Amino acid sequence: MSDIIEILESAGAGSRELDATIEWGSPLEPCDWDHDVPHYTTSIDAALTLVPDGWVYSLINDFGGLNRVRLFDGLNINIEEDGYTMPLSICIAALAAIAYK
User: Fold this and answer.
1) Cβ neighbours of 42 (radius 10 Å)
2) Cα-flanking dihedrals φ and ψ of residue 78, to 5°?
3) Whole-angstrom distance between the N-terminal and C-terminal Cα of the chain?
4) What is the pLDDT, as a whole number, of residue 25?
5) Is 6 exposed, middle or buried (0-12, 13-18, 19+ CB in 10 A)?
6) Contact, 88 vs 39, CB < 8 A?
7) Do residues 98 and 11 make contact, with C-beta atoms less than 8 angstroms apart?
8) Residues 87/46, Cβ–Cβ less than 8 Å
9) Is 79 within 8 Å of 70 (Cβ atoms)?
10) What is the pLDDT of residues 5-61, one digit of tens each?
């Protein structure tokens, strides 16, 4: 999981390749993509489906380029992640939360 997070942290924009990496754990050739793969890295709604059930989220954009996501498990775990876009930030934070569980 940490290798996927590192890839997302270095990404400047979302892509279908990144979506496939999140869905299947490795990038696939474009002809191999399942058209049902959500657009995790380019859609806030799709990215939010990765947030584990029961976790609370806060999306922060300071209009200066910062896209930050805070996740809280309701007990004592706080995860805060930044990314180049809000969907990427959500994906990074959600995968960090999944890895923490």
Assistant:
1) 17
2) -115, 130
3) 12
4) 77
5) exposed
6) no
7) no
8) yes
9) yes
10) 999 999 999 998 899 889 887 655 555 555 678 999 999 999 999 999 999 999 998
Tokens of 16: 């279908």
Output the six-digit token pair for 19: 């979506």
Task: For residue 49, give the amino acid letter.
Answer: T
Residue with tokens 């007990």: 75
Exposure on the CB side of residue 34, measured as CA atoms within 13 A: 9
Domain boundaries, the chain: 2-100
Q: What is this structure's pTM?
A: 0.88
Architecture of domain 2-100: 2-Layer Sandwich (3.30)
* C-alpha 100: how far from chain center: 14
